[in-house]
Specification:
Elements: E1 2-4, E2 18-20, H1 21-28, H2 43-47, H3 55-59, H4 65-90, H5 96-132, H6 137-152, H7 165-174, H8 182-190, H9 193-198, H10 210-215, H11 222-231, H12 241-251, E3 254-257, E4 261-264, E5 273-276, E6 279-282, H13 288-300, H14 302-316, H15 323-335, H16 340-349, H17 364-374, H18 379-383, H19 387-400, H20 424-436, H21 438-441, H22 448-456, H23 462-470, H24 474-482
Antiparallel strand pairs: 1-2, 3-4, 5-6
Helix pairs in contact: 4-5, 5-17, 5-19, 7-8, 8-13, 11-12, 14-15, 15-16, 19-20, 20-24, 22-24, 23-24
Length: 490
Amino acid sequence: MVRTDKSTGGDGNGLGRMTAIPTIAAIRFGSGLSPRHAAPADAAALLQGLAGPDLGVSDYPNPTYEDTLPLARRYKAERTERRALAAAARAAGAGQAARDAEKLAARQVLQVRRKLEANYAAAAMRTLARAVDARTASDGFRERLVQFWADHFTVRSKNAYEREGPSAYVDAAIRPYVTGRFGDMLEAAALHPVMLIYLDQVSSFGPNSAFALRHKRGLNENLAREILELHALGVGGGYQQADVRAFAELLTGLSFSLDKGFQFNRAMAEPGAEVVLGKSYGGGTARLEDIRAALQDVARHPDTARHLARKLAVHFVADQPDPGLVEHLAAAYARHDGDLLAVYQALLEHPASWAAFGAKARQPFDFVVAALRALAVPGAQLTGLATKPARQLLLEPLKLMGQPFQEPSGPNGWPEEAEAWINPQGLAGRIQWAMKVPERLVPDLPDPRRLVQTALADAAGARVVWAAERAETIAEGVGIILASPEFNRR
């Protein structure tokens, strides 16, 4: 079965050619083609096994968030001690002993920071390895879905001691819910300590709470606003500023500290009932259960169905998706009470999902994953890299391409439009990586004439096939393929 994108014409770049369903399935909905793993036979193959075990996590487990806290506490404590010693060393009359103590403390802080950065790099390599090693069609689709939802519920570290948090957050609040109900994922993400820290919920206090009245602290609306505007109903959804304010007051009490962990602190919570989107919550003793109930109701709102439907269609299919596809996804979401498996089935069964191949640009992370898969680099090789080569070969190049790992510029995540990625700076980063890094990871590079079929199959255009056959060196031929328009779009 094939689909034809007639809009791009027969210009030889492969984007206007007839493309087989397995190729589209692997490139648009999966982690890319690989000589190590068969391409998906059809849409059904992408769904088959999706609700089964998460092999990526079992193959490459990350530390839990709780496991990351001792090192975070140590860094924060040693940094505080170092500042105190530095102040003492600067004091009038301070002797050599005080200055030596400050230098020792500075070295200890640096050692812990290096360990935090090493752990961050290791988590990045595990994330890449999970996608690179995706064995089945549904494994590849799962990895793409995890990346989509992790971006939808964007977080990032604000301090050095939080560097390990985002990866642990994805494994706890995103991955287990990718095939479940959206309301449960919304609840898990919104209540996770990393989200509470990122959106400043830990410093939000009910204006009339016991804590605020005693310490003169105020309300922070960030989490409430982003849940309504970004995570659920969307910009222009059916909510008002009054809903944001009431929701923010309802969310007070959610707290986290490195010493005590997550807790619902009633002394921080705004007393009384709150009306959010026309429904009243609370009124008696402040309870975490009222917050959970509100999150589930927000997930069921019709505007949430439409917002998520459009985001999925934009991410997987086209920057300006077919309106019929969006409506089809929204209807499936509403009909199945936010069951995401039903929404994915609706996505894959709609004809628009298999048309206009090449309409989307591969984001840098997906580009690197697809290249590593095409080159048959095993995930274990990535997780075996020391911190320095991991940075040089993968993390720094991702930054040059415009997508530093887990460091989006804001809570709205990474942009979707092709122009954000296919631009002079981004292309320069991709070309540089394609021409230099593969031979450092794969000493015995594949013949470009074989790689062009391995990496692109029937999506390869005449020009890239011609160029691959005539490259002066194997490394140059590999770079030409990976830097080609066909390989950088899906």
